[in-house]
Design brief:
With about 160 residues, this protein is an alpha/beta fold. The chain is about 45% helix and about 20% strand.
């Protein structure tokens, strides 16, 4: 494993490899899930809070230069900065104008992996669309209340 930002885009071990771009905190949050997602992959740890946020260019350069067989992005669900990892992979595909074989996974409540689609990542970038979904499906806020301390606190404050 190494840091995404510190990895040479033409490193031999990236060529035709299954690469996992993993939130740097995952080995601490859930070592078992980390081992599961890291199995048989070249792991690049990334943290947009710690590293330069222009990860999309680095990822696009890795795809163009080393042609990994696949990318798996793993982040902590609900983390505002981890979201950038998923958006960066989608953006790299857009920049290259070619399909990048990939999977997007989030760790829900530090306990379980859930696969999300590239389209879910795309929609999440457009808050006006998210607002529309919340208005049309208000029950999603009940689900949010099961996961988000921020939301629970906002509900508590509003009830005062």
């Amino acid at each position: 494993m190494s840091w995404l930002w510190s990895t040479w885009v033409k490193a031999e071990r990236l060529k035709d490899a299954d690469v996992a771009i993993v939130a740097a905190c995952l080995p601490f949050v859930n070592p078992k899930l980390y081992e599961e997602v890291a199995k048989d992959k070249v792991v690049l740890l990334a943290c947009p809070e710690r590293e330069h946020p222009a990860l999309y260019g680095k990822i696009a350069s890795i795809v163009r230069s080393s042609r990994p067989r696949s990318l798996t992005v793993v982040s902590i669900d609900g983390s505002p900065h981890c979201f950038l990892l998923h958006a960066s992979v989608n953006e790299a595909e857009y920049i290259l104008d070619e399909e990048v074989p990939r999977r997007h996974l989030v760790v829900v409540d530090g306990k379980e992996l859930k696969e999300i689609s590239p389209n879910a990542v795309r929609v999440a970038r457009y808050l006006s669309l998210v607002q529309k979904l919340v208005e049309e499906r208000p029950e999603v806020l009940e689900e949010l209340g099961k996961h988000s301390l921020e939301y629970k606190n906002a509900v508590r404050r509003a009830a005062r």
